[in-house]
Amino acid sequence: MVLYRNFSGGRLSAVRPCRVISDDDRGLLLWLARGSAVLVLQAVDGRGIRDMPFAEWVKVDRQVVHATWEGPGLLKFIPPDTDHSIWFFRDAQDHFTNWYVNLEERAARWDDGGAAGVDVTDQDLDIIVHQDLTWEWKDEDEFAERLAFPESYWVGDPAAVWAEGRRVIKSIETGDFPFDGTWTDFHPDPDWPVPSDIADGWTRPQA
């Protein structure tokens, strides 16, 4: 089990315990089970970052709280030496529905012995990829809104984020791995335990 930790401007914003499915020259493949214990950053009044304008979010008091991963199980694939991950979304019956390209700063791995994980900084702009390999950008408005606050936003080079997305789109349109159907038939072992808490070590500094 590893901890997939998300940071925003150096501040921890989410922790998700994931099972390692494979780790080879193709990249790191993780499984986040439905019902897993997670940690999320939210305002002290219970609202999340998407529940208010970004101008308000950067001013409110925030805290990391315990929560549960309510959605279907999720595969997360982190290719080596890239600034994105690829998520395999599933429906309520755990059938593959679509890919989701999460643009993020290159993952940094860490291993403290008792706990290990990967740290990323989400760059907000995303790409939804349908089974027929058609695609669409997601969260362009959110990306633009936050870029208007350079003193608070953690994306310093928006052109690089767009360029990374366009690079991935070329692979999408030609059906390159992993958009070639690899892992779309994945099903977890029903005997795998669902993490009910977060392993000690989640408070370590960002890698």
Unreliable segments (pLDDT under 50, ≥5 consecutive)? none
Strand order of the largest sheet: 1-2-3-6-7-8-10
Coarse structural class = mainly beta
Number of helices: 3
Task: Characterize the largest beta sheet: strand count, sense, and whether it forms a barrel.
Answer: 7 strands, mixed, barrel
Count of individual domains: 1
General form? globular
Order of helices and strands: EEEEHEEEEEEEHH
CATH class: Mainly Beta
Using DSSP, what is the number of strands? 11
Radius of gyration: 17 Å
* CATH fold call: FomD barrel-like fold
Query: What is the percentage of strand-forming residues?
Result: 35-45%
Annotated CATH architecture:
Beta Barrel
Instruction: State the CATH superfamily name.
Output: FomD-like
- Distance, first to last CA: 17 Å
Give the integer mean of the pLDDT values. Answer: 96
Estimated helix fraction: 10-25%
Question: How are the secondary structure elements laid out?
Answer:
Blueprint: E1 2-8, E2 11-24, E3 27-32, E4 37-43, H1 54-57, E5 62-68, E6 74-78, E7 84-90, E8 96-104, E9 108-111, E10 116-129, E11 135-138, H2 140-147, H3 158-173
Parallel strand pairs: 1-10
Antiparallel strand pairs: 1-2, 2-3, 2-4, 3-6, 4-5, 6-7, 7-8, 8-10, 9-10, 10-11
Description:
With 207 residues, the chain is mainly beta. The protein has one domain (2-173): FomD-like (FomD barrel-like fold). Helix content is 14%, strand content 41%. It is built from three helices and eleven strands, in the order ββββαβββββββαα. The protein has helices spanning 54-57, 140-147, 158-173, and strands at residues 2-8, 11-24, 27-32, 37-43, 62-68, 74-78, 84-90, 96-104, 108-111, 116-129, 135-138. The chain has a seven-stranded mixed beta barrel. A hairpin with a 5-residue loop joins β7 (84-90) and β8 (96-104). The longest helix has 16 residues, at 158-173. The protein is globular. It starts with a strand and ends in a 34-residue tail after the last helix. The model has no long low-confidence stretch (mean pLDDT 96).
